[in-house]
């Protein structure tokens, strides 16, 4: 019996190790592809005839909004949904900074949404890609539905709360959209970094909006997965441990990049040291099965760190702010 | 079983060492690149800008292979954004340092997307026909990006045969690939005329023609675009022709457009209405195209782009 259990354990550990190695290989291929596409973007960035992408987000501050508006792809817009009564100061700051003016609106009723009070567009040509919706704050799904109602383009990218978009992420998504026939793919998602997905607008409308059960039941053959991060989020304290295990590109509730990195690496090193100590103890006592399992845990930890360090990274705007404070003001 | 566990643990340890070793190699390469890329880019710019166009202007000696590889990368990056006038200087730098041979060697040793990246760089360095011939075997690669970058090399090496090369390419060009080839056209690498492209029997050439028309705003191709939109056998190209008509702000209230839109599924028509509203068409200009519910949808889109002055509070 014990032999059968040993064999089963080895088979499981080997399968886990192979899956981990396969993930590392996929991420490396995705990084290489991204480098190739970044070189191609440089010469075609003025092509104004690609598919359009509408970035949907909730409450934002000025820094985050400048990051979102900083993408160079011309057919991209940012639709922000905020409650002017609840976030009065932030709302007024955005209206003044980006010269927003209230415009005529009439709802298309494609996607059900309640509580929309007003629609704002910028009078400044530089910020013509920004749309601001004043809406009673209800649920995140309802806010996204309101943003989708006024989005101009065929693909919707709802951003997780507090996240910033990485350099070339929009262009990367544009290329991914161009690679497939429009009817074949309902959404393009990523499995590295914060969960993000680009939806076809018609799929959202057909499902009845974000948050509907139908949107969560998209057939797998109509989903495409990119093995690279698209957004960057400061992980909050509740998930600091997840960041320390290397499960997200950067970790830490602090404001500066360097302190976040220090905390994340400290936790990673502690976890690794603890695992190594137990592994050495197991080897000394002759507990070979436990030793093999701990090696697999260490391998998983190494792959997680490898993925986080190879594929991750903060947006250029934040790196510039870290290196030269005040340069982006 | 002890031996099997030990072998498994040793294999896992080996994989971990490989992972961390690769990570260290990447970080070291990034650090070296950051230190050397900016000064090298400045040197390349000075070499290109200060030349009088003759091939034997003074070039500093660069003996180390790694430095010449870095020079090839920087030169390819600059060549992608410089115009025809700087091309002769680029050619003389490539010839003086043998950069094409170095890049060919790197292409041979690489695989997958890294090979495609080096092929793209080779295409930007104005390869000779013999060089393009040497990479022709990659045109049957399993990786689509490798095949496409081989196509770019062939186009860059023999511009006069480029349309024939594009027509013979086995895959269907995506919009992004079409944009890359159109960019080559506008950097003076390919001779082209719109009408022969639009009336070509090859799908790739028609897509290319539509991309060129959109880029230069060739209004005189209006009758051909209408014909493609209403009667092209490839639905994808017919849809692209419709979008091209809208992008050029041409009149759309005609029978051919009505016929083309009637053949579209509802979702595609809505997508086109959003594009039309974004391009600034008014409701009256498109009154012939709508069904009743679609008119209300289009009106709601157009209304949201208008600003009521003074804005009621």
Number of DSSP helices of chain B?
16
For this structure, the CATH topology of the largest domain in chain A is: Spore Coat Polysaccharide Biosynthesis Protein SpsA, Chain A
CATH class of the largest domain in chain A: Alpha Beta
Structural class of chain B: mainly alpha
Q: What does the radius of gyration of chain A come to?
A: 23 Å
Distance between the termini of chain B: 79 Å
Total discrete domains of chain A? 2
Instruction: Report the uncertain regions of chain A.
Output: 236-241, 249-255
- Major pleated sheet of chain B: none
Order of helices and strands of chain B: HHHHHHHHHHHHHHHH
Write the layout of secondary structure elements.
The complex is a heterodimer of chains A (329) and B (313).
Chain A: H1 2-44, E1 53-57, H2 62-69, E2 76-82, H3 88-97, E3 100-103, E4 116-122, E5 130-135, H4 140-150, E6 155-158, E7 164-165, H5 169-179, E8 187-190, E9 197-200, H6 201-207, E10 223-226, E11 231-232, H7 240-244, H8 257-285, H9 288-311, H10 316-323
Parallel strand pairs in A: 1-2, 1-6, 2-5, 8-10
Antiparallel strand pairs in A: 3-4, 4-5, 6-9, 7-11, 8-9
Helix pairs in contact in A: 1-9, 8-9
Chain B: H1 2-49, H2 65-79, H3 87-97, H4 99-109, H5 112-124, H6 129-134, H7 144-157, H8 162-168, H9 175-186, H10 194-198, H11 203-216, H12 222-231, H13 235-247, H14 255-262, H15 266-279, H16 292-303
């Amino acid at each position: 019996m014990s032999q059968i259990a040993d064999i089963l354990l080895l088979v499981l550990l080997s399968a886990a190790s192979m899956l981990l190695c396969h993930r590392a290989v996929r991420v490396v291929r995705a990084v290489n592809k991204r480098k190739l596409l970044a070189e191609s973007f440089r010469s075609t960035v003025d092509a104004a005839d690609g598919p359009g992408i509408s970035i949907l987000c909730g409450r934002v501050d000025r820094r985050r909004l400048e990051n979102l508006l900083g993408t160079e792809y011309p057919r991209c817009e940012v639709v922000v949904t905020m409650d002017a009564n609840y976030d009065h100061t932030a709302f007024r700051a955005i209206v003044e900074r980006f010269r927003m003016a209230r415009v005529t609106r009439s709802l298309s009723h494609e996607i059900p949404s309640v509580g929309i009070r007003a629609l704002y567009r910028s009078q400044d040509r530089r910020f013509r890609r920004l749309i601001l919706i004043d809406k009673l704050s209800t649920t995140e799904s309802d806010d996204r539905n309101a943003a989708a109602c006024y989005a101009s383009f065929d693909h919707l990218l709802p951003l997780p709360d507090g996240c910033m978009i990485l350099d070339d992420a929009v262009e990367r998504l544009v290329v991914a959209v161009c690679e497939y026939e429009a009817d074949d793919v309902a959404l393009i998602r990523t499995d590295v970094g914060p969960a993000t997905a680009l939806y076809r607008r018609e799929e959202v409308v057909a499902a009845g909006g974000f948050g509907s059960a139908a949107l969560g039941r998209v057939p797998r053959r109509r989903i495409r997965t990119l093995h690279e991060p698209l957004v960057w989020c400061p992980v909050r304290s509740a998930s600091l441990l997840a960041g320390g295990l290397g499960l997200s590109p950067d970790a830490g509730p602090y404001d500066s990049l360097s302190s976040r990195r220090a905390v994340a690496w400290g936790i990673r090193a502690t976890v690794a040291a603890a695992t190594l100590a137990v592994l050495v103890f197991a080897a000394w006592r002759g507990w070979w099965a436990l030793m093999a399992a701990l090696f697999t845990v260490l391998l998983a930890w190494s792959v997680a760190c490898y993925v986080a360090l190879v594929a991750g990274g903060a947006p250029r705007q934040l790196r510039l702010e870290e290196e030269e404070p005040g340069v982006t003001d | 079983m002890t031996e099997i566990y030990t072998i498994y643990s040793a294999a896992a340890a080996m994989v971990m060492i490989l992972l961390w070793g690769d990570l260290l190699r990447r970080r070291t390469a990034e650090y070296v690149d950051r230190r050397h890329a900016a000064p090298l880019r400045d040197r390349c710019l000075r070499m290109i800008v200060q030349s009088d166009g003759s091939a034997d202007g003074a070039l500093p000696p660069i003996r180390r292979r790694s430095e010449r590889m870095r020079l090839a990368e920087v030169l390819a990056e600059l060549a992608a954004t410089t115009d025809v006038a700087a091309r002769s200087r680029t050619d003389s730098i490539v010839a003086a340092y043998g950069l094409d041979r170095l890049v060919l060697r790197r292409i041979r040793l690489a695989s997958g997307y890294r090979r495609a990246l080096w092929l793209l760089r080779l295409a930007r360095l104005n390869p000779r026909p013999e060089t393009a011939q040497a990479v022709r075997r990659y045109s049957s690669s399993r990786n689509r990006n490798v095949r496409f970058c081989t196509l770019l090399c062939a186009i860059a090496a023999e511009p006069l045969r480029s349309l024939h090369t594009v027509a013979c390419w086995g895959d269907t060009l995506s919009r992004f690939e079409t944009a890359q080839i159109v960019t080559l056209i506008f950097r003076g690498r390919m001779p082209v005329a719109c009408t022969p492209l639009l009336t070509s029997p090859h799908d790739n050439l028609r897509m290319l023609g539509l991309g060129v028309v959109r880029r230069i705003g060739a209004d005189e191709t209006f009758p051909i675009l209408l014909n493609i939109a209403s009667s092209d056998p490839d639905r994808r190209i017919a849809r692209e022709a419709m979008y091209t008509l809208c992008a050029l702000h041409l009149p759309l209230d005609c029978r051919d457009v009505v016929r083309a839109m009637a053949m579209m599924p509802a979702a595609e028509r809505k997508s086109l209405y959003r594009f039309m509203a974004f391009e600034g068409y008014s409701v009256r200009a498109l009154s012939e195209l709508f069904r009743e519910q679609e008119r209300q949808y289009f009106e709601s889109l157009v209304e949201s782009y208008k600003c009521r002055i003074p804005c009621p509070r």
